[in-house]
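2024-03-11 09:14:02 INFO worker-7 job=invfold-0412 stage=load source=structure_tokens
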């Protein structure tokens, strides 16, 4: 049985297939961790734009077997993850400005990330 529904309950979020995404490079490994292949999860052979809505409430991505990935696999995964999760149209609230050139932003309620100020992109309202 997967622990993902229990984690979602503890976080107070609704569980679905994409709330916590568990992937592995190889099919056998993916099955053994109750996940799916990385290629299937992140549409390596499909247009990810059709599936962006599916990842809207994703809280966590677990990528097993990263040490077995080729440079090309990692570059493709990085590209897909940026398409899915780096949404320049969604403004994030800066909660803290630190003296070392970083800020803490709130990605979702109770989900924070500390990033370098050079990674901040200005918010532009959709046309």
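2024-03-11 09:14:09 INFO worker-7 stage=emit residues=127
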């Amino acid at each position: 049985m997967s622990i993902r529904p229990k984690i979602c309950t503890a976080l107070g979020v609704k569980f679905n297939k994409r709330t916590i995404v568990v992937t592995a490079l190889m099919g056998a490994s993916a099955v053994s961790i109750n996940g799916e292949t990385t290629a299937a999860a992140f549409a390596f052979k499909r247009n990810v734009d059709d599936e962006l809505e599916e990842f809207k409430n994703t809280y966590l991505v677990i990528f097993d077997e990263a040490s077995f990935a080729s440079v090309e696999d990692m570059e493709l995964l990085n590209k897909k993850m940026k398409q899915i999760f780096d949404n320049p149209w969604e403004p994030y609230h800066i909660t803290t400005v630190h003296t070392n050139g970083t800020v803490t932003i709130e990605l979702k309620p109770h989900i924070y990330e500390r990033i370098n100020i050079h990674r901040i992109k200005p918010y532009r309202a959709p046309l």
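2024-03-11 09:14:09 INFO worker-7 stage=report msg="The chain has a mean pLDDT of 80."
2024-03-11 09:14:10 INFO worker-7 job finished
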